[in-house]
Amino acid sequence: MKFIDTHIHLQDYKTRYATDIINESEKIGVEKFICVGTSPQDWERVEKLYQEYPQKIIPAFGLHPWYLEEQDEEWAEQLDAILERNPKAWVGECGLDGAKGREIKKQEEYFIKQIEIANRRQRPLIIHAVKCQHDMENLLTQLPKKSIFHSYNGRMEMLKKIISYGFYVSFSFSILKNKECQEIVKSIPDKRILIETDGPYQSPIKGAETYPKQLSELAEMLADIRKADRENFIKLIYQNSKDLINE
Ligand SMILES: [Zn+2]
User: CB-side exposure of 168: number of CA atoms within 13 Å?
Assistant: First the structure.
């Protein structure tokens, strides 16, 4: 069985080295990682890991809605520059969070800027969307075709709109706590479903870090909810990830 972890912050682990996690994951079939940066403060670490493991890592650079206040005006130029020197890099994570951070209208300015950059450079866009249904809905028409709603844990109502635009939806363990989990997981079209750890975050065990080796467990749970054959489902999500990466 082969996996691609479509969203992980390898630079954020506290208890293990990223290199150990990468090496350990290889043995259990985790082929690649989309390693996601969240602010100019960690972009260089992501870029460095990519330089060390160019076959294993696809880097993503973005400004997360939680970290807007710490940035000076040059952030967008810095983002554009790092994307320029890394032609395979994606944009994100970025988005809107109605539960944390600055007021949503301010968040929107930063998000729209990153949508523009992703469109101009034709890169996939990784989106963080929490408690922002109304504002996010208004932006759906502007998103690149290859947009991924990562660690989706919102409402069914919002999901229907996301699906209607043909965007990708990625699940981490967090979806299992959603009241509408069954309906949400079942409703994603075969070609648009992805999985991720969002490691080291979103652990099913409180206070623990999440590792790529847990992807098989997550995939099996989701396959069971979809009443799909586990092996076929794992092949499907692997192929979806490859399509996104263009391989
Ligand atoms: Zn994340």
Answer: 29
